[in-house]
């Protein structure tokens, strides 16, 4: 790499010491990573609650049992998004080898990306209000649906008394959360930060809303092939739920306690397009600012990036615009993958899931394939990995996230 200095200050490496994943590719990190590595197709299912709504298929976490996460007595006290998050956080903290019973909770922070909050709770309780009257609305409605409770519940569960924050930058929220968590470590505000993203947006109202925007795939005849990032025949994303959590520590602290370090978060950049509420800037001006800021923060040159874990939603404009960005800033050298061909698009959770996948790419020296990529769009002049994954000695990975409102966030990860 080009060195350890960036923008007049020494590069700061945040060590990823713990991972937890709850995704449509699998329940838990090992199962999720195996499903992403395999890249056999979109993990979509037909949802009974969406019958009569086009599309009727979404990506759900398989065999998820809330009782196994919080016990039978408490299972009804959380929205599904919070339950997915708590499951991922529990796995991540254990994976880091940390014991919440013995740590100094005042030095542990929580930063979670969550843009929509308790969507399932909100919709169910509104239906109850209309059908059964106000006395039947749950007194837990507000804490169950408030987006800030994504971080709040994690803080409560693990006795984390440091800063507890939720980032809401639409589909960039998970990436923004990880970048913000790294800054808490850099500033000295925390010694450990539990960070990531969670979303469970698979309700009739939200799926209808995305459908009315023209954002969703209509490939109901072949749902395993519905999410097709960068493919010439792509027609939209598949709505998904999911959660991923990363435990971050200062690299020197992680090494001092002998922790296993999966990868380093070495750079972060964020910006706004200031262009359109939902469409990306076709000139990539804002996105380019974020990507270049992440490179600068890490002290890494564009020609040193080996792999890009792309936002890659499988929508026509977004994929083409992101491909233009990558080529403008990084050239055509990096191997490019979108995991959304398998997982679908979990909105605020997507960036955290992709950060976890990027860390595992570095750890295992393996770039997963982009599922369902049969014929690369001729406008996309990149080395997009398809069919089979690639073994690689990648040292530097970029993970892109872009959201409505022109929100751009980019992480740069390096090998431990």
Q: Distance between termini? A: 13 Å
Shape: globular
Helix content: 25-40%
What percentage of the residues does DSSP assign to strands (E)? Answer: 15-25%
Largest sheet: 12 strands, mixed
How many helical stretches?
13
- Give a count of the beta strands, DSSP E runs of length 2 or more: 18
Q: Ranges with pLDDT <50 over ≥5 residues? A: 1-7
Which structural class is indicated by helix and strand composition?
Answer: alpha/beta
Average of per-residue pLDDT values: 96
Radius of gyration: 20 Å
Summarize this entry quickly:
By secondary structure, the chain is α/β, with parallel strands linked by helices. The chain is built from 13 helices and 18 strands. Residues 1-7 have low confidence and may be disordered.
Structure description:
With 416 residues, this protein is an alpha/beta fold. Helices cover 33% and strands 20% of the residues. The chain has helices spanning 29-38, 66-70, 80-95, 119-132, 141-145, 149-158, 173-187, 204-212, 251-256, 285-298, 316-330, 340-343, 350-364; strands at 5-6, 9-10, 14-23, 26-27, 45-46, 57-58, 108-113, 164-167, 192-199, 242-250, 263-272, 307-309, 335-337, 366-367, 383-384, 390-391, 396-403, 407-414. The strands form 4 sheets. Strands 3, 4, 7, 8, 9, 10, 11, 12, 13, 15, 17 and 18 form a 12-stranded mixed β-sheet that branches. Strand 1 and strand 2 (9-10) form a beta hairpin. Helix 7 packs across helix 13 (350-364). The longest helix has 16 residues, at 80-95. The protein is globular. The two termini are 13 Å apart. Mean pLDDT is 96; it is low at 1-7.
